[in-house]
Each structure stands twice: as C-alpha cells, then as structure tokens.
Amino acid sequence: MPRETAATQAAKPAGRPAAKPAGTLVGKLSRKDYERMLEVALVEARLGLAEGGVPIGAALFDSAGKLLGRGRNRRVQDNDPSMHAETSAFRNAGRRASYRDTIMVTTLAPCWYCSGLVRQFGIGTVVAGESATFQGGLAWLKENGVTVVDLDSAECKALLGGFIVARPEVWNEDIGVE
Fold first, then answer.
1. Edge-to-edge strands, sheet with 67-72
2. Bridge partners, 58 (sequence order)
3. Does 86 participate in catalysis according to the annotation?
4. How far is 6 from 8, CA to CA, in rounded Å?
5. Paired sense of beta strands 147-150 and 125-128, if any
6. Catalytic option among 4, 86, 130, 173
7. How far, in Å, CA of 150 to CA of 162, rounded?
8. pLDDT by residue for the chain (178 residues), tens digit each?
C-alpha cells in the first residue's frame, strides 16, 4: 500500500461524523420507511432467484426516500463476478455530484467489495435487511462514520437461507469461500 504524504493527507475529505448505534434511524425516516425501501430490494432479490441467481437485492434512495436506482446480484446470470446487488443499484442510479445524502438498502449486509463502494462514494447510510447470515463489512462501515441500520428481516433470512441450502456451492462462490 502506498505511503501517505502530507499532500495526500491534506487532499482527503474532512472526517465523517461518528457512527450511530445500529438501529438508529436517520432524520425524518422511520423504521416503516426503511421497511418500505427494503421491499424494493426484496422484489429485486426475488427476481434474481427466479432467474437462477443469488437472491440478494438492493436499492439506492435519496434522503427523502425517493428511489434512485435498483438492482440485484447478477453474478450467475451475467457470468460477471463484479455484479453484486449494491453495484447494480449504484450503476442504475446514474451519476451524482455527491452520494452523502443517499441510502443504500440491501437485503443482506454488504460484502467487503460493496462496503468499499459505499465508502469510496461516501454513501451516508446503509440499511441491511439482515446480517445474521453474513456480516460483511458492517462493523467497518460503522467505524468509518456510515450510519448502519439492520432491520433483522425474517423474510430476508428465509429467502437467502433457502437458497444456501439448495445451492451452497454458488453461495460459497459468492462470498469467496472455497
């Protein structure tokens, strides 16, 4: 990893605010608002499963809850190891000058790859449908000032759990386990 110089330190954006405890709701949005947003991601996850892929869905919203982009894990369907649900939703949202006021909603806690996307573009909030099956980079995101809300959704757990039982080799490939 390259060493940081005074110039690269100075070029970094100002620090992010301290992480909020899991489950803390942001601004005017309530748990019901986040559950409504999660439904968009669940629709995507179900579509992915119907297509023969990993049932993980995601959606990117602005701070008022307006849908910007949606997507699903398409690694199997597209034979593309980089097409995770969060990546798909992010790409479908299009360009923005800033992502700080956006909310990434995903049926499963984002993996390290997708957590990197959140940090790289400064997405301010991540709402995970569940993290019991896979915790990914949630702790790291919190440590770095991203607001994380874990909805602990039984529906998300059941959807992915059924897939893991049916296709453990595809699940292990998806999370990088040999």
1. 67-72, 57-61, 103-106, 125-128, 147-150
2. 71, 106
3. yes
4. 6
5. parallel
6. 86
7. 20
8. 333 333 333 333 344 334 444 444 456 899 999 999 999 999 999 999 999 999 999 999 999 999 999 999 999 999 999 999 999 999 999 999 999 999 999 999 999 999 999 999 999 999 999 999 999 999 999 999 999 999 999 999 999 999 999 999 999 888 888 8
First CA to last CA distance, the chain = 26
Residue with tokens 């993290």: 131
Query: Burial, 108: exposed, middle or buried (Cβ in 10 Å; 0-12, 13-18, 19+)?
Result: buried
Sort strands 103-106 and 57-61 into parallel, antiparallel or unpaired. Answer: antiparallel
3-class secondary structure, 133: coil
